[in-house]
Design goal:
This protein has one domain. It is built from one helix and five strands. It has one helix spanning 23-28; strands at residues 2-7, 14-21, 34-37, 44-47, 53-56. The longest helix has 6 residues, at 23-28. The mean pLDDT is 93.
Length: 61
């Protein structure tokens, strides 16, 4: 599984959303607006599927 990430609009650094998907599932999933408290800047960021990308977590897929 890969981690669903967004980019912090304050720091431009990657932020883990707490969600994981396989690459094939992520291509077809519809995600409504979500929020996450940013570990980088401390603010809450709202995001949707087009804002997100996958990052390998280093584990088995």
């Amino acid at each position: 599984m890969a981690r669903v990430m967004i980019k912090c609009p304050e720091s431009d650094k990657p932020v883990y959303t707490g969600m994981n998907f396989s690459y094939t599932a992520f291509d077809s999933v519809q995600i409504d607006e979500k929020s996450v408290r940013c570990a980088e800047c401390g603010h809450v960021h709202y995001w949707r599927r087009p804002d997100a990308y996958l990052e390998d977590d280093g584990g088995e897929s």
